[in-house]
Design a protein that fits this description.
By secondary structure, the protein is an alpha/beta fold. It has a domain of about 220 residues: Spore Coat Polysaccharide Biosynthesis Protein SpsA, Chain A (Alpha-Beta Complex). About 50% of the residues lie in helices and about 15% in strands. Strand 2, helix 3 and strand 3 form a beta-alpha-beta unit. The protein is globular. It starts with a helix and ends in a 14-residue tail after the last helix.
Length: about 375
């Protein structure tokens, strides 16, 4: 029994250590060697697509940031789908369309969700490149030209922008999201060195129009689907560090938890759909396993490690210490909840609490993915 429990504990712990420590370190090292591209002689036409639900507060700044670009203006279209907005989003879009003739606005009378809206808008344009972006992800004047520069290489099918988080002063939740996003960008930069960025980050990414295939009905995480599908078609997906977009995030921990649960459901949808890409002997499969699949499976691996340590604790001092140590970590993570309500913030406890909540959201997302809920829409309050 001690051999079995020891093996299970070691295997589960090693896989979690790999996905959270070894693989990120490997990709960070690779990111020091960014790809270089030839000069662009003829810029492609581009259509910027975004779905908006009640984005009146940020939408004008978003549209303005797109058209302030140094990219050739006559080669830009912007397509916005209003997902049955009720806060004046439509009025703002109608007003902006008077100033920007390249802005096309379409209202969806029933809540439809981002994937459906992007599928619809992609069919409206004949542009050579699609840029899919979120309403609250602001561009600077170089975002579009830098994002489209890698397409000078005919092997490149998708390009991920470099996303930075606009933090709210005093918000621990926003700081945690900013830290998480920074690590994600470092990992994607390393993956981009190999041309295998697995899953786009929805704030902003680009792809060749000829490679776009509609996201299946009921799928939630469209950005992962689109980039994985490009890889499946045999094209490279890369990261462009100089294509910078800034994104705001909710400082409400409950909203972030619901968002992560919803994304967790979408992750397991994609894991089943793209299981044929999980070949660990090639770079794409190695990245898929290391960056995504093992992270999505981490709550189950942690549970296996904990139960294995408990099982063998009576026969092994090492497993006993592991069991007591993991139990202490769980209790400390839970202790962060009442301490936070008292206004006491202890950074290590916040990290443990954030990690625990993130993995609990994955568990709930996995359970959700087993059901038949077809709701794919989302609002700014996390509903």
């Amino acid at each position: 029994m001690i051999l079995v429990s020891g093996f299970l504990f070691a295997a589960a712990s090693a896989l979690v250590f790999h996905t959270y420590v070894l693989f990120p370190a490997h990709m960070k090292r690779l990111s020091r060697h960014p790809k270089r591209y030839d000069e662009v002689e003829n810029w492609p036409t581009v259509a910027v697509l975004l779905a908006a639900y009640n984005e009146a507060e940020i939408l004008e700044a978003k549209i303005t940031s797109i058209f302030k670009t140094s990219y050739p203006k006559h080669k830009i279209e912007v397509w916005v789908g209003s997902d049955a907005s009720t806060d004046g989003t439509d009025t703002i879009l109608q007003k902006l369309a008077e100033s920007y003739p390249q802005l096309h606005f379409e209202r969806f009378e029933a809540r439809s969700g981002k994937p459906y809206i992007i599928n619809t808008l992609a069919n409206r344009t004949q542009a050579e490149v699609l840029v899919i972006t979120d309403a609250d992800a602001l561009f600077d004047e170089k975002t579009l030209p830098e994002l489209l520069h890698p397409f000078v290489n005919a092997k490149v099918g998708g390009v991920q922008a470099n996303v930075r988080i606009r933090t709210i002063e005093g918000s621990e939740v926003a700081r945690q999201e900013a830290s998480y996003t920074l690590r994600e960008m470092e990992i994607k930069a390393g993956e981009g060195h190999w041309g295998v960025v697995i899953g786009g980050f929805g704030a902003a990414y680009a792809l060749r129009k000829t490679l776009f295939r509609p996201v299946p009905s009921g799928f939630i995480v469209d950005d992962f689907y689109t980039f994985a599908d490009i890889s499946q078609q045999g094209f490279q997906t890369v990261f462009q560090p100089s294509a910078i977009t800034t994104l705001s995030v909710s400082a409400d921990g409950k909203v972030q938890f619901r968002r992560k649960r919803r994304i967790g459901k979408g992750n397991f949808q994609n894991l089943r759909h793209f299981r044929n890409l999980l070949n660990p002997v090639n770079k794409l499969g190695y990245v898929f396993w290391s960056h995504k699949a093992l992270r999505w499976l981490t709550p189950f691996l942690i549970t296996l490690a904990y139960l294995s340590s408990a099982w063998g604790s009576n026969e092994s001092y090492l497993l006993a210490w592991a069991f007591y140590g993991m139990t202490a970590c769980f209790l400390l993570a839970l202790a962060d909840i009442p301490l936070r309500q008292l206004g006491i913030s202890i950074k290590p406890l916040r990290f443990l609490s954030h990690f625990l909540r993130m993995n609990w959201a994955l568990v709930l997302g996995f359970i959700d993915s087993l059901g038949s809920d077809k709701k794919v829409s989302w609002d700014n309050q996390g509903q």
